[in-house]
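Incident log, support desk, overnight shift.

02:14 A customer reports that sequence design results differ from what the structure should imply. Their input is reproduced verbatim below. On-call engineer (initials T.W.) acknowledged and began investigating.
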């Protein structure tokens, strides 16, 4: 079932001035429940502007955003509720931590929702567990944590509100490869557990190949496509024309196929490529 829809969504910054810029141009989308989605596109293609429409931070210049079939701007009094249902985590969210303890910071959004003490406590603990944050951290000042743990505390505050849609803008910016992988695995586990829809804005083709089911591709303010991740990576030449690329491992597999190695298509992750190469080697050994 669709959770979020856009109809002819268009947004123009500084309309009617010499600085006018249409950042999102007639975008029609239908986003399903319970899905892990990557959002990709060149810098300036309109990703961030589009995401800010999903929780009503920006109001369309024309067109509509529908959450559960309801136009989110039909009744402005309900926008607060929209922001509880669609959580948005900006880049480097750790700069927004401000409470005395990590637990209080994670609880902040839940308090605003008016949840009871017990419910808040159980959500804080459950979310901290999902993100692998040890209990002992919860009573510390957020400012005493490491960079990765601060980032987790900030993301946990939005996750604890259990939004139906969670949007994360480059949640791994600045993390090392091991930290990136752990963070993305935890976000995927959260998505599975809560059966929510997660939109992951990313510049890393490797990350979206490994962790997402669908890709939303923006190009020059237009929606280029929204489809299964593996189908998008089949369109390598078109992606290249947009200044994007397929994951490196996919290029390596394609070069091998061109040299006559009988590898299957749709190998976009290191694991799937490794399994395919090992299967070929085993087949070769068996036929010797
Ligand atoms: P992305 O997230 O893909 O990098 P953005 O949505 O941030 O793209 O930007 C899309 C276009 O809108 C860009 O050309 C950008 O310069 C312009 N833009 C973004 N924010 C503003 C703003 N506050 N005022 C004017 N133009 C903006």
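02:41 Re-run completed on a clean worker. Output:
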């Amino acid at each position: 079932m669709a959770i979020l829809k856009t109809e002819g969504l268009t947004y123009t910054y500084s309309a009617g001035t010499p600085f006018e810029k249409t950042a999102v141009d007639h975008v029609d989308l239908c986003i399903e429940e319970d899905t892990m989605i990557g959002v990709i596109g060149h810098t300036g293609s309109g990703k961030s502007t589009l995401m800010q429409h999903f929780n009503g931070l920006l109001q369309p210049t024309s067109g509509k955003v529908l959450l559960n079939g309801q136009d989110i701007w039909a009744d402005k009094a309900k926008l607060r509720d929209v922001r509880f249902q669609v959580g948005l985590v900006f880049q480097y969210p750790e700069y927004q931590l401000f409470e005395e303890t990590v637990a209080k910071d994670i609880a902040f959004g839940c308090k605003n929702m008016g949840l009871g003490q017990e419910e808040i406590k159980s959500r804080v603990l459950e979310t901290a567990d999902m993100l692998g944050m040890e209990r002992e951290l919860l009573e510390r000042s957020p400012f005493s944590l490491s960079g990765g743990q601060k980032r987790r505390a900030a993301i946990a505050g939005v996750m604890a509100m259990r939004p139906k849609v969670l949007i994360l803008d480059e949640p791994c910016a600045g993390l090392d490869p091991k930290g990136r992988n752990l963070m993305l695995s935890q976000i995927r586990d959260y998505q599975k557990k809560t059966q929510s829809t997660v939109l992951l804005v990313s510049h890393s083709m490797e990350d979206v190949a490994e962790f997402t089911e669908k890709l939303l591709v923006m190009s020059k303010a237009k929606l280029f496509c929204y489809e299964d991740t593996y189908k998008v990576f089949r369109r390598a030449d078109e992606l290249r024309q947009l200044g994007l690329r397929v994951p490196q491992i996919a290029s390596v597999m394609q070069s091998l196929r061109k040299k006559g190695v009988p590898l299957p298509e749709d190998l976009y992750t290191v694991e799937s490529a490794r399994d395919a190469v090992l299967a070929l080697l085993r087949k070769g050994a068996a036929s010797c």
